[in-house]
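Hi R.,

Here are the chain sequences for the assembly we discussed:
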Amino acid sequence: MRRVLVTGLGAVSPFGAGVKALWAGLAAGVCAIRPLRLIDAEGFRCRIAAEVPEIATGSSRRSRADRLALGAAREAMEDAGLGVEERANAALIVGAVGGGMLEAERWYWARARGERAPGWAASLRSILPAAHAETLAHRMALGGPRHTVVTACSSGAVALAEAAELIADGVVDCAVAGGVDAVTRLCFMGFNALKLLDPQPCRPFDRERRGMSIGEGAAFVVLEADEHARARGAPVYAELVGHGMTTDAYHVTAPQPDGEGMARAMGAALAAAGLPAGAVGYVNAHGTATPQNDRIEARAIARVFGAGRVLVSSSKSMIGHTMAAAGSLEAVATILALTHETVPPTANLTTPDPEVDFDCVPRVAREVAVEHAISNSFGFGGQNVTLLFRRA
Amino acid sequence: MSHSQRRGVVITGVGVVNAAVVGASPALDAWLEQPNAGARTPAGGARPAVRLPEETLSGLIDPDERRRLARVCQLTVAAARFAVAEAGLEPTGGLGLVVGSELGDFTSTIAFAEGYLSRGPAGLSALLFPNTVMNTMAATTAIAVAARELSLTINVPGVAGELAVARAAAAVASGRVDAVLAGGVDELDPLVVEMLEALGDEGVRGEGATFLVLESETAARARGATVRGRLAGAVWRSLPARPWGVGRRIASRAIVEALARAGRDAPGWVYASASGDAPRDAWESGVRSAALGSARPPAVSLGGLVGHHAGLGALHVAAAAWTARAGLLPDGAGGEPARVSGCGLVHGLGRGGGQVALIVEAA
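And here is the predicted structure of the full complex:
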């Protein structure tokens, strides 16, 4: 198996365009969850979300999600300095859920009201999750293997794991991988229907937490085989030393109460890396702030690493739950924590849950040099993914 | 694990649910000897499509599950159970799952939206919402067959089923998992049919699910499983094309690489992803001809019989395993099969340029 390095980072987040904006927000513990503007929240208990403030990339005729993806992927490829030849052979793996649903909803809503509904063809082209990969490959001239993975809220992390396997197995030398999702009515209404949204900005690991906050964004990374990256003098941020993908096979929406599937994912990542649990210093948690998820995840982390043995924080406290983008945005946050020797905090955490037996880095970032860190992502259907990074 | 250390991958279970054939290998094998077409019925678009009769599906899923599961999940679970039962896998063994789908559960997505449009927030269904995420088929099937290792849902135009099988084969070959249930599923929805026609897809649409159990050959032999075929090479690439478009380039590496991995020079016969979508079919044929040079193996597609859907790619792999065993290539128009020999190529090329090549041989 070949070693897999991270050589490029790109992000469009509720803090704005760019990795620098993302890190500035995360390191400062700023909460970007604000009143919703993109969709009408009238009649709903929750009316907030973490929206991307402005999108500079791409034609406004493209779906919002496509534009988020284009911005993040372009930054990652420019950061890595990928040339025409590398792009022509690079794999593209995208984690997606909503596709261009925001635009398709506008069309469908108008049709339901009996109004003229323009944009039919454009909406259809962008409605499926695969639309982002099709657009990115075409616009960025990415010519290697390409596919879209849909594993609900862990999709972005799965995309990185998939790309890492293609590189480790020698199928490609280089891959662009990440996740994207825009705020959509469907998603916002669905989590409202499940009563999983907090009317106030979410408070992961807080005793008073009441649920999650929706977010949107995109993050992509460039992954490369060690020898390929070294040969062309690429910048190296971190090594993706292991990952684990498991399934609860328990319930369509609820995680397994004992966290066994989550723990297996973390254990598999450690085993793939050949590392003991004690080597890991930081866990970027899935940390949705639902009462159930945070308690079960903390239990699973304790089972693998030992209670209180690692720092744990949730980026969702600042950028919300960005759905298919969450796994990749949080992977970027984890890599930046390693490179900046600073663990980002859990914003809005004022009263730690006594059932969460970890230092969850409340409100203020912590300067600490960590050698290895993991990023957890879990999704509907009990889809558990852990990515394990080593500092470069 | 390097390429040279890759494990052999074999097929030990097959499950098919579509308008023309329902069951495991015996049902599929019997159908392939003289395949009949599923009936084409109005489906919401300008052209009829091949839809699975409701009474067939209701006979496969118990009433309690029918109440709980969306129709596309019922298709998936029914086909998956046929495959896992035929493979004789222990429920406690480590089983992965890879589901290919082009369309997911549009029917539930539309029903969820209609609930809001008719009654506002009070009309939203918490039960329907999870079905709006495309991994709902994988989620329900993982529970039904206790698949607790990696679980992926792959979405790509035109070749989702072939790609799911290829991805699963890679997972087994690399040693990351010993057994994977892999295949494809789609259902017909009137809005989807209308949408695909608006995007220029001229093919015959269908619905259904086909799933295969793939195992490492060593593990399958050790437990005495019946081996139905070997996946000797699996490669996926992409060719340049606009989203949902048909490209011009016919030079590709996927077929040649798949043959090289299998240690073969040329296939003796081909299952191709022809679906009646004339521009795409012509592109696929051109790519295949360019890769195979002077070799002109006979080719068939079952797409005209069961309609194009993500299950078709996996159905072609299962059918290829039968052809490798029986030395017979079915007639895509329902006539007598032709005698063939050697290994087979299953080739998929979708609008947008997704390409998959799988080499199937007798084991």
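Chain B touches chain A through 62 residues (CB under 8 Å). Chain B has a mean pLDDT of 94.

Let me know if anything looks off.

Best,
T.
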